[in-house]
């Protein structure tokens, strides 16, 4: 079965392809099918993921998988949350991972409470009209370090320190990161749901 990934993020595609490989599904990025990005007007991960999955499924005629993920910082009341991808633009920087990290570290100067969570919400639909979307959530709790560490991963991985592992996500090999990450947790839950409901 082919599934369209409602994202153009190469990092997400690579991670999700590896994690969903046991099911034998072909995962294709929506841009490969000429599908543009969906509007994301909502304030919760689940609403945005559902909107993205419906958009990609309607445009492709295929089942769709969407991920809406972000960083929720305790000291900022859970922000940037659904605005994570555009976080740097709030502070005059261009959109991008490196600028997001830079802006976050600048905004957290002098803040001692550095607890944060990376959250991933995956939504899968058999069709755009599927009345029973599959929804899986993963949450990785850690602390924001004061300077980037490691060269792996993407997004906020270089500053997301996981105390139980003693490293940032960017310092971990991909397989170890996937075993502990928010997206890895959500993907494992989604695989279980797909096996139970779709296969």
UniProtKB/TrEMBL annotation:
Manner of cofactor binding, per the entry note: Binds 1 Mg(2+) ion per subunit.
Residues annotated for substrate binding in this entry: 7-12, 69, 154-157, 177, 182-183
Write out the catalysed reaction: ITP + H2O = IMP + diphosphate + H(+); XTP + H2O = XMP + diphosphate + H(+); dITP + H2O = dIMP + diphosphate + H(+)
- The enzyme's main class, written as a single word, is hydrolase
A single GO molecular-function term is:
ITP diphosphatase activity
Q: Does the keyword Hydrolase apply?
A: yes
Please give the Pfam families that the UniProt record associates with this protein.
Ham1p_like
Catalytic positions?
68 (proton acceptor)
Q: Which UniProt keywords apply?
A: Hydrolase, Magnesium, Metal-binding, Nucleotide metabolism, Nucleotide-binding
Listed EC numbers:
3.6.1.66
Q: Which residues bind Mg(2+)?
A: 68
Q: Which cofactor does it need?
A: Mg(2+)
Family statement drawn from the similarity comment of this UniProt entry: Belongs to the HAM1 NTPase family.
Could you give the subunit structure recorded for this chain?
Homodimer.
Give the protein's function: Pyrophosphatase that catalyzes the hydrolysis of nucleoside triphosphates to their monophosphate derivatives, with a high preference for the non-canonical purine nucleotides XTP (xanthosine triphosphate), dITP (deoxyinosine triphosphate) and ITP. Seems to function as a house-cleaning enzyme that removes non-canonical purine nucleotides from the nucleotide pool, thus preventing their incorporation into DNA/RNA and avoiding chromosomal lesions.
**Under what name is this protein listed?**
dITP/XTP pyrophosphatase
